[in-house]
Description:
Layout: no helix or strand
Amino acid sequence: MNYTVVNREVQIGDIYLTAVTSSSIFLIGDADVIQLASAFDTPPESLIVGPFVPLTPKGS
């Protein structure tokens, strides 16, 4: 996949995250290169998918 990114000024206010999955990326700012890779060698029938674990606010 090839795409062109035009960077302009970024202004971020408040960000509220409820949960982050194990295969996600949360990025604010610049990145020259992002390389992602995944390997999964467990049979699908042994995979246990549970509920998301919510993030706790700082200071809690």
